[in-house]
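testing teh design pipeline on a random one, pls ignore if ur not involved
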C-alpha cells in the first residue's frame, strides 16, 4: 500500500474530474506501463480501480479521471467529494490491459471516460514512434475529457473525435474503421458496456482474430439471477465441502467459512479473485478472461461466477 495525497483536482469535462496523486513522503511513485490501473482506498472503506492516464514515463505523480456516475455504487461520488490535500492509500499499479508492443499497427477506441487508459497508451505509442490511431467517442465535446491534451499533444494528427451531437466530429462508423483486419493490427477498446459490445461485435463480424482484440470494462451490466441454483465447492487442501446457495456468491460462502480470497471489484472485472478450478465446470460470469481462457475452465472468478456442474473443486 502507498500513502498518497491529492495534489490537484481539476474539472476535465462535464461530470468528469481529474485527480493528481503524489506520494505523501515526496518519493517517486512505482513505475507503470500504459493500460495500468491502481486500487484507490476511499473514505468509507470503498476500494475502486481507476486507470492511470498520465504519461507512463512520469514518476512524480499518478493521474486518474473519474466520471460522476448516477448509477455508481458509491465510488465515483466519493472521488468527486475529494479535495486537494486529502490523504489516501493506493495499491501499486497493475496492468490487465497491456499494449502488445510487437503490433505493426494499433487502433485505440475510447468511449466516454474510457479515454483514461487509452490516453496513456497513445502517449506511449507516440513515444515509441509506433503506427496508431485513436478514436474518441463522447456524447458531446463538453462531456469529452482531456480534449486540450489530445488536440495539442504530439500525436494530435492521429486523434479522431466522434460526438453524438455532431458538433466537432461525426459519430463513429466502426464498420468502416474495422473493415480491414490484419494479422499485426491490434484493437484496444475501453468505455461503457454498450460501446464496447458495439465495437468488439463489429470487429468480430468483420473477421478480427480474438487474440488481436483487447478490452477493459468499467462495470458489469446487471445480470438476472432468477435462474441461479445452488451447488457445492470443495477445497482441495482439506477436502471440505461447502454449499453455495442460489442467493450467495462463492466468495461470500468462502468468506463465511473463513477462507480468504482477495476481492476488489466484486463484479468480475478486475481479476483479483481469480481462483484455480481443479474439477467441475464453472459458469463464467466475468468480463476479465478471454473466451479462450474461460473455455479452458481451469480458473474462475468466485466473486460472480457460478457452476454448471454440481460441484467445483477449487485449488484452495
Ligand atoms: Fe474483481 Fe472478482 S473481485 S473479478
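output:
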Amino acid at each position: 500500500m502507498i500513502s498518497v495525497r491529492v495534489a490537484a483536482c481539476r474539472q476535465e469535462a462535464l461530470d468528469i474530474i481529474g485527480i493528481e496523486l503524489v506520494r505523501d513522503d515526496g518519493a517517486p511513485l512505482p513505475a507503470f506501463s500504459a493500460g495500468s490501473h491502481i486500487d484507490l482506498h476511499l473514505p468509507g472503506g470503498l476500494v475502486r480501480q481507476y486507470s492511470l492516464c498520465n504519461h507512463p514515463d512520469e514518476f512524480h505523480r499518478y493521474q486518474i479521471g473519474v466520471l460522476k456516475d448516477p448509477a455508481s455504487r458509491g465510488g465515483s461520488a466519493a472521488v468527486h467529494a475529494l479535495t486537494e490535500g486529502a490523504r489516501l492509500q493506493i495499491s501499486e499499479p497493475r496492468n490487465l490491459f497491456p499494449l502488445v508492443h510487437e503490433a505493426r499497427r494499433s487502433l485505440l477506441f475510447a468511449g466516454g471516460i474510457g479515454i483514461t487508459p487509452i490516453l496513456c497508451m497513445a502517449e506511449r505509442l507516440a513515444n515509441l514512434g509506433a503506427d496508431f490511431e485513436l478514436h474518441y467517442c463522447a456524447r458531446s465535446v463538453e462531456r469529452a475529457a482531456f480534449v486540450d491534451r489530445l488536440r495539442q499533444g504530439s500525436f494530435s494528427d492521429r486523434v479522431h473525435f466522434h460526438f453524438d451531437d455532431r458538433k466537432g466530429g461525426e459519430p463513429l462508423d466502426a464498420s468502416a474503421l474495422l473493415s480491414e483486419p490484419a494479422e499485426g493490427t491490434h484493437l484496444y477498446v475501453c468505455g461503457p458496456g454498450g460501446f464496447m459490445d458495439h465495437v468488439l461485435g463489429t470487429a468480430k463480424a468483420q473477421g478480427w482474430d480474438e487474440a488481436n482484440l483487447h478490452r477493459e470494462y468499467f462495470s458489469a451490466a446487471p445480470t438476472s439471477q432468477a435462474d441461479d441454483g445452488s451447488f457445492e465447492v470443495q477445497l482441495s487442501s482439506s477436502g471440505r465441502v461447502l454449499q453455495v446457495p442460489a442467493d450467495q456468491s462463492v466468495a461470500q460462502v468462502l468468506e463465511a467459512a473463513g477462507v480468504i480470497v482477495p476481492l476488489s471489484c466484486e463484479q468480475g472485472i478486475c481479476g483479483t479473485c481469480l481462483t484455480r478450478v481443479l474439477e467441475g465446470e464453472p459458469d463464467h460470469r466475468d468480463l476479465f478472461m478471454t473466451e479462450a481462457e474461460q473455455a479452458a475452465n481451469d480458473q474462475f472468478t468466485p466473486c460472480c461466477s457460478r457452476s454448471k456442474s454440481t460441484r467445483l473443486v477449487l485449488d484452495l
